[in-house]
Amino acid sequence: MTKMTYRDAIRGTIFQEMQRDPRVVVLGEDVVGGMGTAGGPEAIGGIWSTSTGFYDAFGPDRVIDTPISESAIMGAAGGLALAGKRPVAEIMFADFIGVCMDQLWNQIAKFRYMFGGKSVCPAVIRMPCGAGYNAAAQHSQMISQFVTSMPGLKVVMPATPADACGLLRQAIRDDDPVVFLEHKFLYAMTGEVPDDPDFVIPFGHARLARAGEDVTVVASGMMVGYAETAADDLAQDGVGCDVIDLRTTSPLDEEAILDSVEATGRLVIVDEAPPRCSLATDIAALVANKAFASLKAPIEMVTAPHTPVPFARELEGAYLPSPAKVAAAVRKTLAYR
Amino acid sequence: MGEEAGMQLNREALTRAYRQMKLIREFEERLHEEIQTGEIAGFTHLYCGQEAVAVGVCEHLSERDKIVSTHRGHGHCLAKGCDVTGMMKEIWGSQEGLCNGKGGSMHIADIDKGMLGANGIVGAGAPIAVGAALSNKIDGPDENGKLAVSIAFSGDGACNQGTTFEAMNLAVVTKAPAIFVFENNHYSEHTGDAYAVGTAQDIASRAEAFGMKVWRADGTDFFSVFDTFGEVLEFVRTSGNGPAAVEFDTERFFGHFEGDPQRYRGEGELDRIRATRDCLRKFREKVTGAKLLTDEDIDAVDADALQAIEDAVTASRAAARPTAENVLENVYISY
User: Fold this and answer.
1) DSSP of B202-216, one letter per residue?
2) For chain A, does the N or the C end have fewer beta carbons within 10 angstroms?
3) How many secondary structure helices (H) and strands (E) does chain A include?
């Protein structure tokens, strides 16, 4: 095991996969940075520092710095994948999915099915996402609800450096298109990451981040840490929470959720996205449908409000879920009857 | 002297144009300082260096003309008449800001002033400007037979987005009174136009290929911008001519965003462009050389602009903060 940041886990995993498999290529805006400038290639090394050194190691054919052209990036990732490569494309901010939605939704996600199973599309689309930086309405969004709803895509939301590594390696080796939602706020998080260059975490297997018998708390991405903090606080008062980190939202580990709810009878879902047609409502529907008899209280959802992401610190703070909001929801479900 | 139309401007107009440029400069220089303190949240992209473009364009416009801006929008907003204190309060995240602290630096708008929004998405502005231009076309010419126009400000980054291409073609085929103002500051974020703009760093030729009449001018010289844009505007205001495009060669004095280490810059590059490509310095040299204004006149404007920024910052520090209840305002919520 090596202690490293979430950011370095992502960078290191892509780098190792590029060394291992010549089909792996990287593309995106400023993934090299400094192209066509006095400072020259690698003057930036990716604005998230997740591709530093790639250009020098692998050259321009496999590390493709693109103009600001998200549709072309997304579509080219699809074309590279159809032609036998394993592209890892970066959409600098997940919000920019709006610019290139067709290439993801109508093209990449649908190829394998539409072509009768005669093609694969092993594209990884990395999308730094989420709020917390006062970056306002077009640089802060959680887009898990869109991509999880699209048949044909796999969707990953790593919550720790080790998961970022194991899930990203699985994504690159997977034959289906994978949207990899890395939370901008987690880049600096440190943790132990396995050294095994073949360490993968299979999709569709949730992680039990905390074990407890009173309430089930389901979360993903940055919300996992909030749920853990809440669970640790509640444990001081003798309240035990099962904190389930989904890891992937498509495929969804239904069994892990249902087993836990059957044991606790109480469910809190934490989701950074707005509340309608979201992961939270999706999981609530699943549990209402398949574990109704186990429920001792209404399902609680801790989500963003049904608004765009606001700019001012006070507004964004009120917008986002928080450990305190999660703890309050847990107490509310426990207080029922 | 005085061949240029801009040099024929009277003292009042010259002073006003210079004050607008200086106000933008001081606004941005002050933000650059304030951001270091951590008091201002979020991403901020400064317009410093490009003032002559925003002001040289907007000094020709009236409130019925519309502009659509970019992530680097403060200059366009100020030039189009947005209130300096309202803008500063917005960037401070105040409830009293132009957008009630909801938008911040990247989303300043003032519809009544014809400023249809800065924008966080590169290339998103041009189609919106064409929509506004189509509205102008429906409204028809004024009593002098002139159309209101809509301006899409775009950079060398946005010129590579499909949205910009689609907007240009739509404007051409609908003869929309739209003007595509391309500000080539030679950096799309952290990448040079030498790499990213495939038409030999020439953006105007793309507009030309869509069937538009195009102009090119030095964007670091107010008079060059003012005179050139005057011709562009005259053409587009004439019903039936349709859109046009103009490319201004300009410079960005700061990074892509505040905090950008700018490692892509050459040795001494920033000092050089500040010394040789500063639109404010050029303006002063031209107008004092031609004895249109004196150094004392200009110094007085400098002091006035500086005070306006100081007042705006003081007001922003004291301005009301938004509260959690404000989050749910300004949007339809069904439950």
Assistant:
1) -SHHHHHHTT-EEEE
2) C
3) 12, 14
DSSP state letters, B289-326: HTTSS-HHHHHHHHHHHHHHHHHHHHHHHHSPPP-GGG
Closest partner residue to A315 (CB to CB) among B101, B191, B335 is B101
Q: Where on the phi/psi map is residue A134: left (φ > 0), alpha (ψ -120 to 50), or beta?
A: left
B322, A72: Cβ pair inside 8 Å? no
| Inter-residue contact A216 to A265 (CB < 8 Å) | no
Dig out the tokens for A116 from the structure.
């009768």
Q: What are phi and psi of A4, to 5 degrees?
A: -155, 170
In a 10 Å sphere around its CB, with 0-12 CB exposed, 13-18 middle and 19+ buried, how is residue A249 labelled?
A: buried
Q: Looking only at Cα atoms, what is the longest distance across chain B?
A: 67
Domain boundaries, chain A: 2-193, 207-335
pLDDT of residue B1: 42
**Residues in contact with A230: Cβ distance below 8 Å, sequence separation at least 6, in sequence order:** A217, A241, A323, A324, A326, A327, A330
Largest CA distance in chain A: 69
A104-121: per-residue pLDDT in tens? 999 999 999 999 999 999
CA–CA gap between residue A94 and residue A33 (Å, rounded): 19
pLDDT of A143 above 90: yes
Query: Measured between CB atoms, does A214 come within 8 Å of chain B?
Result: no
CATH class of the domain at A2-193: alpha beta
A 57-86 residues with CB < 8 A to B: 65, 67-72
Indicate whether B334 pLDDT > 70: no
**B75 contacts B47 by C-beta, under 8 angstroms:** yes
Choose the closest CB to A136 out of B103, B160, B190. B103
A300 and A269 Cβ atoms separated by less than 8 Å: yes
Collect all residues with Cβ–Cβ distance below 8 Å to B298 and sequence separation of at least 6: B18, B284, B287, B288
Angle of CA points A33, A35, A36, to nearest 5°: 145
HSE-CB of A269 using CA atoms within 13 angstroms: 25
**Where in chain B are the domains?**
5-319
* Global confidence as pTM: 0.96
| Bridge partners, B182 (sequence order) | B154, B247
Looking at the complex, does the CB of residue A94 fall below 8 Å from at least one CB of chain B?
no
The class (CATH top level) of A207-335 is: alpha beta
Question: Alpha helices, DSSP H only, in A142-200?
Answer: 144-148, 161-173
Buried b vs exposed e over B139-160: b needs ≥16 C-beta within 10 Å?
eebeeeebbbbbbbbbbbbbbb
| CATH number of the B5-319 domain | 3.40.50.970
Per CB-CB distance under 8 Å, the chain A contacts of B121 are 95-96, 98-99, 138
Amino acid occupying residue A93: F
Give the DSSP H or E segment for B146.
none
